[in-house]
Specification:
Distance between the termini: 74 Å
Protein name: Magnesium transport protein CorA
Order of helices and strands: EEHEHHEEEEHHHHHHH
Membrane topology: Multi-pass membrane protein
Structural class: alpha+beta
Strand content: 5-15%
Number of domains: 2
Mean pLDDT: 85
Organism: Methanohalophilus halophilus
Family: Belongs to the CorA metal ion transporter (MIT) (TC 1.A.35) family.
Pfam families: CorA
Helix content: 55-70%
Number of strands: 7
CATH superfamily of the largest domain: CorA soluble domain-like
Radius of gyration: 35 Å
CATH class of the largest domain: Alpha Beta
Number of helices: 10
Low-confidence stretches: none
Oligomer: single chain
Length: 342
């Protein structure tokens, strides 16, 4: 297929796409859920109103293509939106900015990190956002929009773009908190009683951290590209917020690197713990074997089948040998304990 061919690449995560249209300014707010694309084509947007269209579900390529025609989005951008394997990036075009970023969720039961792609198109007076499935990620932003005095209603769509990305980055902190709790649990298992299942959990979590790092590492450059944008779509007042968002992205990346180092250290700790347990077992077996060496020697001597041995015909020979063997065992146990070998 040629460049710009629209094909959905990824899983179908919703039955039917949900299209939400929000028109707003400081005095006006109107929300249309499951808005028909034909109505949007014929809708005349007021110049003093800002538009936010959110699409949950990407498998209907006709819907994405129609939105691209309405807002003049290049087919290559639409192709990237439908290909849900994109790495985070920012691309500037003549009339809009395209941003793709990944939102991450930690599945505690499966000990795995799941990710969804979110694409954002920032235009002169509109913003388009595309999600693979419907989530509560932008719910708080919708609630903030209901307050006329809030910054989202007062400021432009560039501030709304910042708010959407900030919501995604904030969700990373929740993800890292869940992963941190899992790492603490694994550390407790390592100290108390590690087993092969613990080792498997560490390997799985370490593999997920690699996926997490691959999704988050480009985030810093994505936000930095928005700060450096010269298209005029991002105002200087919003640049202050983007700098703060850039700092948050660095904190998230540093936390991921810290967790990766902790997991590597936990693998070493597991090997050391298992080796120490094996050493304790070997020490105990060695002590037992050492105690039985003289006892076996004595039993071997009196087990020889010679006719003329001094103690064989002695009435108290057996009790004397048993007492002697017991005395040797007690003396050796006392010596080992005094040396803290036991």
């Amino acid at each position: 297929m040629g460049p710009g061919t629209l094909v959905h690449v990824g899983d179908k995560k919703v039955k039917e796409p949900i299209l939400t249209l929000i028109e707003y300014n400081e005095e006006y707010l109107e929300v249309h859920v499951n808005q028909d694309i034909d109505i949007i084509k014929n809708l005349e947007f007021a110049e003093d109103r800002k538009i936010w269209i959110n699409v949950d579900g990407l498998h209907q390529t006709e819907l994405i293509e129609s939105l691209g025609e309405v807002f003049g989005v290049h087919p290559l951008v639409l192709e990237d939106i439908l290909n849900t394997t994109q790495r985070p990036k920012t691309e500037s075009y003549e009339d809009y900015i395209y941003v793709t970023i990944r939102t991450l969720f930690y599945e505690r039961l499966e000990n795995a990190v799941d990710s969804d792609q979110i694409s954002i198109i920032l235009g002169n007076n509109f913003i388009l956002s595309f999600q693979e499935m419907r989530t509560d990620l932008f719910k708080k932003i919708s609630q903030r929009m209901e307050r006329p005095a809030g910054n989202i209603r007062k400021k432009g769509v560039d501030y709304l773009t910042y708010s959407l990305i900030d919501s995604i980055v904030d969700n990373y902190y929740l993800l890292l908190e869940d992963i941190g709790e899992e790492i603490e649990r694994l550390e407790d298992e390592l100290i108390k009683e590690p087993d092969p299942a613990t080792l498997q959990s560490i390997h799985e979590l370490k593999r997920e951290m690699i996926i997490l790092r691959r999704s988050l590492w480009p985030l810093r450059e994505t936000i930095a590209s928005l700060q450096r944008d010269e298209s005029g779509l991002i105002k200087e007042s919003t640049g202050i917020y983007l700098r703060d968002l850039y700092d948050h992205s660095i904190q998230v990346i540093e936390a991921v690197e810290t967790y990766r180092e902790m997991l590597s250290g936990m693998l070493d700790l597991y090997i050391s713990t298992v080796s120490n347990r094996m050493n304790e077992v070997m020490k105990l077996l060695t002590i037992i074997a050492t105690i039985f060496i003289p006892l076996t020697f004595i039993a071997g001597i009196y087990g020889m089948n010679f006719d003329y041995m001094p103690e064989l015909k002695w009435e108290w020979g057996y009790p004397a040998v048993m007492i002697f063997m017991t005395t040797i065992s007690v003396i050796m146990l006392y010596y080992f304990k005094k040396k803290t070998w036991l």
